[in-house]
Design a protein that fits this description.
The chain is elongated, with a radius of gyration of 22 Å. By secondary structure, the chain is of the alpha+beta class. A hairpin with a 5-residue loop joins strand 5 and strand 6. It is built from three helices and nine strands. The chain has a five-stranded mixed sheet with strand order 1-9-8-5-6, with no helix packed on it. It folds into two domains: 56 residues; 143 residues, Sandwich (Immunoglobulin-like), CATH 2.60.40.1240. This is DUF4352 domain-containing protein.
């Protein structure tokens, strides 16, 4: 747990205490006391939000190369390969170009099994346009049994697997990068977190 994790916990607990305390004073009709507590709470939350946004906007974007791990605690992921092709199988043709991105998921845990039920990936192009995985292309690849286990597969201690994600991108898309998210809450509220509100996402630069 980082200092900013602890700060968020203290902020949440402090807010709960302040709300209940002010409610108590309101019931006792001690308006001034309740008002002071709520004012301090409001100022504290505004200051926390300002620090959260300032750190997010001023932090540089983290750029990872292929084969480099990005870890969320003991759950790690890397990009191993990226290829493009016009179709998958004989029946599924891309509207633009299919990009097949192979990711390697691994566990650094030594004594427990784990899974990432909320892990998601998407692509960004040079203009910042987001592209989510293509469901039709993914189903076609899954039918060939070449895509590997899904991202939320349970991992044994120190285990790993590879998974191929399918994207359908315009032929003009360039300078592609992959973004991995691992759930928004509570990361979106933690100061300095790479998934905090308005923070530039960590990206894997793709090479095809």
């Amino acid at each position: 747990m980082s200092i900013f994790d602890a700060l968020l916990i203290l902020t949440v607990l402090g807010s709960i205490v302040a709300i209940f305390t002010s409610g108590y004073f309101l019931l006792r009709r001690r308006w001034q006391r309740a008002r002071r507590i709520l004012l301090v709470l409001a100022i504290s939350l505004v200051l926390y939000t300002l620090v959260l946004l300032s750190v997010a906007l001023l932090s540089p974007q983290r750029i990872l190369a292929m084969h480099q791990n990005r870890c969320f605690d003991d759950w790690c992921i890397s990009v191993e390969r990226s290829i493009k092709q016009p179709s998958i199988g004989t029946t599924t043709t891309a509207h633009g170009t299919f990009y097949l991105v192979t990711v390697r998921v691994s566990s650094q845990a030594r004594g427990i099994t784990q899974r990432a039920t909320d892990a998601q990936v998407y692509l960004l192009d040079a203009g910042g346009q987001r592209y989510d995985p293509d469901s039709n292309g993914q189903q076609a690849l899954d039918a060939t049994r070449q895509s590997g286990p899904p991202l939320d597969t349970r991992l044994a201690p120190s285990g790993s697997f590879t998974h191929i994600v399918v994207f359908d991108l315009p032929k003009s898309a360039s300078a592609l990068s992959l973004v991995v998210t691992h759930g928004l809450f509570p990361e979106i509220l933690i100061i300095g977190s790479e998934q905090s509100f308005l923070h530039k996402p960590t990206i894997f630069q793709l090479q095809s």
